[in-house]
Structure formats: C-alpha cells, structure tokens
UniProtKB/TrEMBL annotation:
Pfam families in alphabetical order: TctA
Protein name: Tripartite tricarboxylate transporter permease
Bilayer-crossing regions: 20-47, 59-80, 107-133, 145-162, 200-218, 254-281
Start and end residues of each DUF112 domain: 18-294
Lineage summary: Bacteria, Pseudomonadati, Pseudomonadota, Betaproteobacteria, Burkholderiales
Coiled-coil stretches noted in the UniProt entry, renumbered to this chain: none
Amino acid sequence: MLDNIILGFETALTLHNLMYSFIGVFVGNLIGVLPGIGALAAISMLLPITYGIDPAGALMMLAGLYYGTTYGGATTTILLNLPGTPSHAVVCLDGHPMARQGRAGSALLIAMLSSFMGATIGIILMMAFGPLLVEVAFQFGPAEYFSLMFLGLLAASTLTTGSPIKGVAMVIIGLIFGVVGTDINTGISRFTFNIPELQDGLALVAVAMGLFGIADVISNANRLGEGHVVSSKKIGWRSLRFDKGEFKSSLSSIFRGAGVGSFFGILPGTGGTIASFMSYAMEKKINKNSKNFG
C-alpha cells in the first residue's frame, strides 16, 4: 500500500496535474455558489471537457470539481441562508447567524478547513480499512437501513430549539412532501397532479429557496432600506481570523464529524445529507458549547 501511495503522490504532484486540479476547484467554487446545482450536475456538464486529457489529470480535475462545488455551496448558505446542496441545510443553523454578527469570514474559513480535514480523514480511512469497511457495508440489509433512516429522522426532529412536537411535525411534513414523485418499485406517479416536473419529486434545495429565500424577498419588498445588511467587522484577510481558542475547540467536533461521515459514506444510499444531520444532532448532545448553537 505504501508503494502505491508514493506512486500516487508522484503522479498527483506533477505541475500539469496540479493545474487540472486547480481548474476543477476554481470552476467548482463558481458553480457551487449557484443554489440547486450540486456536484453531480456540475460533473455531468463538464465531463466532455476531460475526454482529451490523460486519465490522471481528468480524475484530478473531476475530484477538484467535486470538492470545489461541495464547498462552494457553503458560501450561499452562510451569506444568504440558501443551502446550495441538501447537505448544507444544517449549515444554515449556525453559518448565517455568524454572518449576521459580522463573522462571515470566520464561518467560511472554518467550513473550508473542516471540509478539507474531513475529506482527508475519510480518504485515509478508505485507503487503510477499505476492504474491511466494504465487508461491514455488505452486512447491512433492509432492517439496518430502515433503522439508520429512522435514526436520521429522529436526529432531524431534535434540531429544533422550541417544542419537540414542532420538530416531529416538521419531520412528518417532510415525509409527506417526500411521497411526491415516481415510486421506485412500481413506477407509478404519486401526487404529481399530471404535472411532469413533479415526477422527479420535490427537490430540497428548491423547497428551501421557496420557503426561505423567495419568502424573505417578498416580505421585504415594501421595506427597502430597512433590512439588515450582513457586514464584517474586520476588513480583508483579517476577516478570516478566528477568535482566541476558537479553532482549537472546534478540532474535536471536526474529528467526530469526520468519523460520522466516514461511517455513513460507505453505506450505499445514505450520503452526506444524513451524515450532516446526524453529526449536528450528536454535537448538540455532547458538545460543551452546545448552548451557543444557532
């Protein structure tokens, strides 16, 4: 394995492969700030560009595009309270309040560092324990997947700071909205009302933009000049600095989140959305600073 890792670094650290990776990350960030366009859509659109590139450079550009798009969604989530991807819905709970306090730079920086560290830890675990993790994933059946989904729904219901009944009602309404679309087992359209666009279901990003983004624009349409402007107390690079001890206290959360993400990442059909909700719910229970959440 060490020989393969050394060979991989020798291939990846060449100048032209690093250039392809930089192009992928740069374009991914530009696409990621557009709400509703996720990493898979970006890769699908830009895949033909890689046909004339050598395989190593093409894979590095696609990987950079994936990571860049994934992080770019955090920009609109933190600054505009519009989740760029479904997995960024949890970032709205703390990222946008930090931006309204003038600390948008710190929120964007911690999102970038935690994404980098989490991805690095996940790749290391995949290289070291890949065969073992695959064997564990194959042991999961319908009962285990149902338990994980149910646990994720319970975790989502605990994210509310008010009445627990409202949290459970929120999850039930979400399940009702999730019924809309084409049934994966029978192919029958459910609650589409003969509207072809509803056959793919209700996209979480579109629902979030309608509930929060468009609703906020309409509510403030007649109050121009009275809204709250998100500004930074620090200018330039100083806006990216953390407060004293802030990053050190976040390291434990980053490692726990990387562990949760690595576990759910090996299970087919789950992914980052469930992992982010589970990680946030876990942090609310065990983090010493959970009273400052939100």
